Amino acid sequence: MVIDGDRGGMDSDHDSSSAGGGKDVWPQALNRPAEAQDTPGVIPPTPPSPVPDPSATGRGIAGLSFPYQVAAALALSLIGLLACTQVAMVFLHVAPSNTLSKQHGKTIDRWIYPEFEQNWKLFAPNPLQQNVAVHVRAEVVGADGRRTTRWMNLTHEDGEQIRGNFFPSHVDQNELRRGWDFYVNSHDSENRPNGLRGDLSERYVRRITMLRLSERDYGGTIERIQLRSATSSIAPPPWSNEKISTRPVYRVLPWWTVTPNDLPERDAGRDGAHGAEENQ
User: Fold this and answer.
1) Among 94, 194, 236, 270, which is most buried by a count of CB atoms within 10 Å?
2) What's the average model confidence in pLDDT over 24-31?
3) What is the C-alpha to C-alpha distance for residues 240 and 237, in angstroms, rounded to an integer?
4) Strand 152-153 and strand 145-148: pairing?
């Protein structure tokens, strides 16, 4: 019969597989799970890996030992205190004048300057309503003796370099202006320094001035310089009834003796060599 022939064929195949040293597939089929035996071609699912208990291991500071937790808490508290102090000092520095800033002004300045200097003001201050020009004159010693030059308007020269220039230099726009503001804010009305930045601002202005004067030939050596500012109020518009005097008000600084530190590097080196020759 056909059934016996098929069975005999299956038996012969199994016998030939065993006799030929092939791997018997029947033990593998018997070792499979019941689901795999009933449904051919299905891969048994992988058992899920165990989920660790979150409470077994701590996270962040909670995972540290107690001494380290205390140290971390102290460090975070110190950082937060410094941050709050910095914000408060900057706020009082840029805020309009108030009771706290008047009473503790020196403490605020010592905290802010020079690392945290702020050049902006809170609550939109009034725009500048004055024109400030910086003038200089020099005392020159030459073959014809000692003479004093006329006043030269350094601010006007910077303005000429800016007008009509689509890409004006940052030096022409801000160097002299910021330098003079630096000096005025660091000195009182008698030109006496009101803090540690007074001497620095004076040396800065002197170097700027000598850098400008070194570009000119006066037929001698500049031994002393004197600066002044001319401050004039901006005239009100024609439709305004406000009456403001536009006459300039001058602030004249004392004469300063020029030192090698005030000269540009090329002039300082030349004057140093000249002085060495005279000493020989």
Assistant:
1) 94
2) 49
3) 5
4) unpaired
Distance CA 229, CA 142 (A): 27
The DSSP secondary structure of the chain, one letter per residue, reads: -HHHHHHHHHHHHHHHHHHTTPPPSHHHHHHS-HHHHHSTTPPPPPPPPPPPPGGGS--GGGGS-HHHHHHHHHHHHHHHHHHHHHHHHHHHHHSPS-HHHHHTHHHHHHHHTTTT-----TT-PPPP-EEEEEEEEEEEEETTEEEEPPPEEHHHHHHHHHTT-SS--HIIIIIHHHHHHHHHHTB-TTS-B-STHHHHHHHHHHHHHHHHHTTS--SEEEEEEEEEEEEEEPPPPTT---------EEEEPPPEE--GGGS-HHHHHHHHHHHHHHH-
Residue 221 identity: T
Neighbours of 111 (CB within 10 A): 17
Helix (H) or strand (E) holding 7: helix 2-19
Q: What is the mean pLDDT of the chain?
A: 79
Instruction: Give the residues across from 220 on adjacent strands.
Output: 142
pLDDT at 19: 46
Instruction: List, in order, residues 6 or more apart from 64 with CB less than 8 Å away.
Output: 58, 72
Structure tokens given for 234: 């901006």
Give, as one character, the DSSP assignment of residue 151: P
Segment 253-266 shows an average pLDDT of 88
Long-range contacts of 259-264 (CB under 8 A, 24+ apart): 261/203, 261/207, 262/203, 262/206, 262/207, 262/209, 262/210, 263/210, 263/214, 264/210, 264/211, 264/214
* pLDDT score for 259: 92
Query: How many residues are recorded in the chain?
Result: 280
Tell me the C-alpha distance between 215 and 266, whole Å. Answer: 12
